[in-house]
Amino acid sequence: MGLEQFEVVAVLAVVIIVAASYFSSRFGLATPIILVIVGLAVSIIPGMPLIAPEPELILAVVLPPLLFSAAVNMPVMDFRRDLRTIGALSVVLVLVSAFGVGTLLWAIFPNLSFAAAVAVGAVVSPPDAVAATAIGKRLGLPPRLLTILEGEGLVNDATALVLLRTAVAATAGAFSFWQAAGDFFYAVVVAIAIGAAVGVVAVRIRSKIDQPVLTTAISFVVPFIAFLPTELANASGVLAVVAAGLVTGASSVRRLSVADRNAERTNWLTVQLLLENGVFLLMGLQLRTLVTDVSSGGLSVWHAVWVGLAVTVLLGLIRVAFVIPVVFTARRRRPDYEVQARRFDEALERVSADERFQQHPRGVRIERWLQRRRADARFYAGNGLGWRGGAVLAWSGMRGVVTLAAAQSLPTDFPYRTQLVLVAFVVALVTLVGQGGTLPLLIRVLGIRGTDEEQARRELALLLVEINEVAAGQVLDNPELRRRGGEPFDPAVLEKVREVQARIADPQRRGGAEDPAKAQYGELMQLILDAQQDALNEARSTGSYDSSTIKTAQKRLDQGSVRATGI
């Protein structure tokens, strides 16, 4: 493909992605499903060139920024709370699915070794949560379900790719379970260590620069800085990217400025839109290439289709069987968490009434730990999965372009390679269009509702009042409040700032006094904003409020910061 043809294709792809994203809500379908269907239709147009991208383009160039963007926006508190469920789905379920599918393929293809069959099982095992979360957010799924789906999508690719690499290596020599387990453990530990270190260092460097354009440019290369050295160390580069993203998301609020975070958020949303949807369009465009490869090899296309359908059914059955005990365990433990919440309430009451404890050097740290544990217990007690939520989890097993790219990365001398790649494509296509297309109907039939809007508004108002009261207590009501030079603030400035703070908490309020001296106003507003941010960070760390409430409050505080400091 020449340069001019590539430019035309790239422009058309962007136009198709934007159009599909805009009209997806009117069709009632997730954007990825529309793009796959459009890609399939375009691929069979006479004269359309065969599309066969290098699998490394997806696995090493597209996947790292996609996972990093998703990890940055993942609330770490929610991820920690559902880590057990996320780990079960993204690690244990992937392993069970890979060996289950591997056993089936081993029985169907006579010349396929068991290790090679497990490698293919690893290819088709990890679901792609993009389509599921796109549908869930539009239809208002509960935040906990969305967190579990997004968390599963972040980690399961790493599990599958590490297992794929281990299984492919086993095809070339003797297989040792303990060696494979050791390699897997090494890949995970090293990846988390490198990714976390890259995230910490990158945020610190960006906080020193404090220029939105430059800090955003650095953030674009962070996923690759985490990915490349981890892969060179024979660990999981994908997991390193996720670790770097989680660390970045958790620490950026405290270390990066409002302007830096706003610029980064806007630019990453654009990158995510193009990459995330572009890979689904690319997936549809590859149909003709795959069919041609199978046919030219003298193999049966329909045999690959039927095997793909059988694998899809098996994957669905395994996922349903796995989700049932997960939901049962969550339901059974819910009363225990209610009891725990009451016990932590009683403990906090005793701590607050004990003056000696309040004066203890570790008193504040212990009280914060009790608050965090109480918030966790309340979360589990009030946000149970339930059987309807379990049904959504079980049906959200859509595969995506990572499955196809991983299949195409199989060695060229792999037995039945072209047929197996087509099998992976059938699995991805059927699950994405079939399960993804019927997921909205399932959600409506089950009557699942998200967070109550009135309750969310009340919680947001309560949080805004809380952080404003903390800020007022620390700054405005402080009798020792002074300017940088030591002189007191003008009373008119103090009154103006109180009005601004009231408008931040309640944006429907309008009016206020005439602008006082801007120098004093800027100094005092900065003190207030710092105190408010500290209070919001404290609320975030204890987990006393829902993550969506924290996110909305942060956005409100950032908007208030931009308005107030610009006056």
Largest sheet: none
Overall average residue pLDDT: 81
Shape estimate: globular
* Structural class by helix and strand composition: mainly alpha
Question: What's the Cα radius of gyration?
Answer: 26 Å
Number of alpha- plus pi-helical segments:
23
What is the rounded distance between the termini? 54 Å
Briefly characterize the structure.
The chain has helices at 3-27, 31-43, 55-72, 76-81, 83-108, 114-124, 129-139, 143-171, 177-209, 212-232, 237-255, 258-285, 287-296, 301-353, 355-359, 363-382, 386-395, 401-408, 417-446, 453-476, 491-505, 518-542, 547-565. It has 567 residues and is mostly helical. It is found in: Cell membrane.
Description:
Helix 3 (55-72) packs across helix 10 (212-232), helix 3 (55-72) packs parallel to helix 11 and helix 8 (143-171) crosses helix 9. It is built from 23 helices and no strands. The chain is globular. The longest helix is centred in the middle third of the chain and has 53 residues, at 301-353. By secondary structure, the chain is mostly helical. 81% of the residues lie in helices and 0% in strands.
Looking at this protein, list some descriptive labels.
single chain, 567 residues, mainly alpha, 0% strand, 81% helix
What order do the helices and strands come in, and which of them pair?
Layout: H1 3-27, H2 31-43, H3 55-72, H4 76-81, H5 83-108, H6 114-124, H7 129-139, H8 143-171, H9 177-209, H10 212-232, H11 237-255, H12 258-285, H13 287-296, H14 301-353, H15 355-359, H16 363-382, H17 386-395, H18 401-408, H19 417-446, H20 453-476, H21 491-505, H22 518-542, H23 547-565
